[in-house]
Amino acid sequence: MMFKISNLTYQYEKNKLALNNINMDFSKGNVIGVIGSNGSGKSTLFMNLMGILKPTSGEILFDEKKIKHDKKSLYNLRKDVGIVFQDPEKQIFYSMVYDDIAFALRNIGINEETIKERIHEALEAVNGIDFINRPIHFLSYGQKKRVAIASVIAMKNKIVLLDEPTAGLDPISTRLIIDIIKKLSKNNVKVIISSHDMNLIYDICDYTYILNKGNIVEEGLTEEVFINEDKIIDAGLELPWLVKVCKNMNFPIFKNERDLYKYWNEKIENVEFIRKKSIEKVT
Ligand SMILES: Nc1ncnc2c1ncn2[C@@H]1O[C@H](COP(=O)(O)OP(=O)(O)OP(=O)(O)O)[C@@H](O)[C@H]1O
User: Fold this and answer.
1) Closest atom of ligand 1 relative to the 16 alpha carbon
2) Which class in CATH covers the domain with range 3-238?
3) How is this protein positioned relative to the membrane (predicted)?
């Protein structure tokens, strides 16, 4: 059950390509990152994947079949693929949280009993069970975003697209979202994240694509795509802080903070050991 994109081009206006002949294969990772600066084409890509936009040329294969844009095909596609838009307001259809999450589930014919269970489960997962009977417009931006994520969790999609999942969120909510993404991945849901938050991508994606003005300029295992700093800078991005620190300290490049501290503490202990030994020798 996977997306494969070949030679996808998308054009909103004449003489300007929002996506220029791109190729992607989402079987290459479990949590896939798509990074790029403002206007690089990330949202356009996601809207093509959801069938909201139709490729100008090239094709998107899902499960080895070309995506079709008739009502029935899109209905089937969206049973498997869910999206959380950057702006949670875009995703709200009903005034009450419960009904809003229930909407998509009712749409695919799930019974009310199961819907109730799924809504509880999904809201628990985003730490938002308190919102269940609240009107959505009473919620803050970050709370709305969590409701939007609960909606896709409740759908039990096989693939989830997250457009800037942590933009505008405080550190606690950001950590919560990271945990949710890790949990989804553990449950074999493929997660595709678009972001210009390099730290987020470095932390959770195992495979990453870099978009620059509609072109894919780099792709690979996440640890490897950040090796070429010039390409990152050229794409209007920056290195994740961890990579920057490791690089400038001439350390090996670590994938997580814990390994860096472990390495540093061992180094310090070593230095301490040598210092003690040298004192022993002298005395
Ligand atoms: N509805 C539209 N009509 C015309 N041009 C558009 C439209 N939407 C996007 N574009 C153009 O397409 C290009 C890609 O935009 P897109 O929104 O996909 O970028 P993005 O990477 O998601 O940006 P951001 O990080 O700001 O969300 C930009 O040059 C943008 O100006």
Assistant:
1) 29
2) alpha beta
3) Peripheral membrane protein
CB 93 within 8 A of CB 100: yes
Which among 79, 96, 189 is positioned nearest to 135, based on CA atoms? 96
> Which residue carries 């498997």 as its tokens?
80
pTM of the model: 0.90
How far apart CA 177 and CA 159 sit, in angstroms, is 16
CA of 40 to the centre of ligand 1 (A): 7
For the chain, give every domain's residue range: 3-238, 251-283
Residue nearest to ligand 1 atom 11, measured at CA:
18
Q: Please list every protein residue whose CB sits less than 6 Å from any atom of ligand 1.
A: 12-13, 18, 36, 38-44, 196
Residue nearest to atom 5 of ligand 1 (CA): 12
Instruction: Report the 10 Å Cβ neighbour count for 144.
Output: 22
pLDDT of residue 36: 93
pLDDT tens for 62-118 read 988 999 999 999 999 988 999 999 888 777 777 889 999 999 899 888 999 999 999
Ligand 1 geometric centre to CA of 32 (Å): 20
Sort residue 21 into left (φ over 0), alpha (ψ -120 to 50) or beta.
Answer: left
Give the Å distance between the CA of 17 and the centre of ligand 1. Answer: 10
